[in-house]
Design a protein that fits this description.
Shape: globular
Largest sheet: none
Structural class: mainly alpha
Strand content: under 5%
Number of strands: 0
Number of helices: 6
Distance between the termini: 28 Å
Order of helices and strands: HHHHHH
């Protein structure tokens, strides 16, 4: 019972921090400004670990590799801690591979969340302060679809198509995660 509680807590806290770090990385990658409520929360919750890591890990081609490496290491550590609590000893290669696949999966989850939020804001309150943030996060993925999918009436169905593509993408990623765990 205590092992299950500890595993749950490690999974929750680790996944939450990794998702925040990945969101910060995606903000920077997609050139979403941090001068908004969502960006300020991300900076406030992740700067304590990203800023020291930047002293050691340089950026590459304008990408904040320190954030990505810290997210990867944190996910690998969370997986190791969960396995250790359960009495398993996975190989280092399996931990690194599964953590890498998890970063891809979590990135898809972040995009799914951003699409839902962008659609909700566009319908409910297009002038909300966080609305443009989610629009900037989803625009690079929706723009190619909008070239081929015309609106139905006045309704843009490209977010629905993007969600379908993302959920289909999660199927091979989940299979890849299982295969990586066997290393």
């Amino acid at each position: 019972m205590f092992a299950q509680i500890a595993t749950l807590l490690i999974d929750f806290v680790g996944s939450f921090l990794v998702l925040l770090l990945l969101a910060r990385f995606h903000f920077q990658w997609l050139r979403v400004p941090f001068r908004n409520p969502v960006g300020e929360v991300l900076l406030g919750l992740t700067s304590w670990i990203v800023l020291p890591a930047r002293r050691v890990i340089p950026g590459l081609a304008g990408l904040d590799l320190a954030t990505l490496v810290v997210a990867w290491a944190m996910q690998a550590f969370a997986l190791w801690a969960q396995a250790w609590i359960m009495g398993a000893e996975p190989s280092a290669l399996a931990l690194v591979a599964v953590a890498g696949v998890d970063l891809l999966r979590f990135s898809v989850y972040i995009l799914v969340f951003a699409v839902f939020m962008q659609v909700a804001f566009s319908w409910i309150n297009p002038d909300a302060p966080a609305g443009p943030v989610f629009d900037l996060l989803t625009r690079p993925f929706l723009k190619p679809l909008r070239r081929y999918i015309p609106p139905v009436g006045r309704v843009d169905i490209s977010p629905l198509v993007l969600l379908l593509i993302l959920y289909v993408l999660l199927i091979p990623l989940n299979s890849l995660r299982l295969a990586a765990a066997m290393l």
